[in-house]
Amino acid sequence: MIRNVLRPWFAAALLAGAPLASTAAIFSASHAETTPAPHADLTPASSYGDADSLALDWSSVPEYRIVPGDELTLDFGPRADLNGDILREMVVRPDGRISVFPVGDVIAAGRTPRELEGALVKLLAGDIRAPRVIVELSRLAVNQVHVIGEVVRVGPVTADPYMTVVQAITAAGGFKEGAARNNVLVFNRNGANTVRVAEVRVDDVLKFGGLKGDLRLSRFDIVYVPRSTVGNIEVFTRMFFGGLTNVTSFAFEGWELFNLDRVFIVPGHK
Q: What is the pTM of this model?
């Protein structure tokens, strides 16, 4: 199964996202399934316009993780001779690191701002008495999701804040012939080493759901369109990320330092 995941397309350079096209692009002439299935506990998108962000439970949203290209401001606290705080602005390099005096390179990508603060305090403690540092995100890198598998254009897609699965697949050129349209998997990194997986029956959503069952994506989500139906989602997920251990850090932005520990399946799904 994992050989089907690690196809030649994965070794190729990831393509830039394309502008959104009509959702009709993801249809084909034949559809095998005719009975809709429930979409339990998915976060629906009511339309392709801006969603109501007040309807979201922001307390349940995972803390942001730093990625290459993010601009950070490091506040080392006040210094009398400066009449203010010691501030250092820097951009996270493509290798996920930043350079901090006097400790040198520090891995920032894959960590939350609070985790990076803790790492910096520990490193600086060897050279500075009672160090303190606050990490502020000054500017975020581009917002994108990753669409892979049986789609026309595999790679990252530039995403609006409320992009949905259907929109992402459409932006990737639509399904290839023979794609398992009712077995689309969405991987959402909801912790340092944990992933949340949802199965989206895209064919049923388009034919019966009026797009109400479409799943809203989060930044850097991976949308995977398999060729055949995935039987055991948890087993497949572990095989998928186990096979990507050595390449995830450069292939999927937003998944730096990811080493799968726990898998959470959206309730009501396999």
A: 0.61
